[in-house]
Design a protein that fits this description.
With 201 residues, this protein is mainly alpha-helical. The protein has two domains: 62 residues, Orthogonal Bundle (Helix Hairpins); 108 residues, 3-Layer(bab) Sandwich (minor pseudopilin epsh fold), CATH 3.55.40.20. It has a three-stranded antiparallel β-sheet. The chain is globular, with a radius of gyration of 16 Å. 35% of the residues are buried. Bound molecules: manganese (II) ion (MN).
Length: 201
């Protein structure tokens, strides 16, 4: 059985950047839906008992139930577990070095990531990934797809993910996705993201 990540913070902890009402619906309803539908979809199949990473990395593109709900489950567990009010924090250690060497600076990296997030048409995600050579790349995916899936345009291990579905921001920001994306930088737990980078390398 797949279960939602337990939040190490309260629904109000990310205010004013993500409001409590959005957290209640997003974590409590949307993420709940992906998780229970994923459990239904894998139950009794040969995917039962496998890790979500293994399932997604071997996924058949036409398996829409697992593509949508397995992607949704993985993406939201990753998203919610990397959040925390960081009070202007930024990456440190190997991740900071890798960002600087790949993008030139943290500021340039942020601009490129923001562009991926704001230009994704409709629903989807923006990602920072480590590719198979351990190198950082920015990309985006539609709907609940992610870079683990074999048919993704850019493949790799997600390090940082931003949900740009309207359900992630509409209550507070309405149509102002760019403002939501800009505020994302205030609520990233760089310790968690740095650990993912170490594990992915
Ligand atoms: Mn979402």
């Amino acid at each position: 059985m797949f279960t939602k990540v337990v939040l190490p913070y309260s629904f109000a902890a990310l205010e004013p950047f993500i409001d409590q009402a959005t957290m209640e619906v997003h974590y409590g309803k949307h993420h709940e839906g992906y998780t229970s539908k994923l459990n239904e979809a894998v139950s009794g199949t040969d995917m039962d008992g496998k890790s979500i990473e293994e399932i997604l990395m071997n996924l058949d593109e036409s398996n829409t139930a697992v593509r949508n709900n397995g992607g949704g489950f993985y993406n939201h567990n990753l998203f919610f577990s990397q959040l925390f009010l960081n009070e202007g924090g930024s990456p440190t250690g190997n991740l900071a070095d890798a960002i600087n060497s790949k993008f030139g600076s943290f500021e340039t990296f942020k601009e490129a990531f923001n562009k991926a997030a704001t230009t994704r048409f409709g629903s989807g995600w923006a990602w920072l990934i480590a590719n198979s050579s351990g190198e950082l790349e920015i990309c985006s995916t539609p709907n609940q797809d992610n870079p683990l899936m074999p048919f993704a345009e850019t493949k790799g291990t997600p390090i940082l993910g931003l949900d740009v579905w309207e359900h992630a921001y509409y209550l507070h920001y309405q149509n102002r996705r760019a403002e939501y994306v800009e505020n994302f930088w205030n609520i990233i737990n760089w310790e968690v993201v740095g650990r993912r980078f170490e594990q992915a390398k």
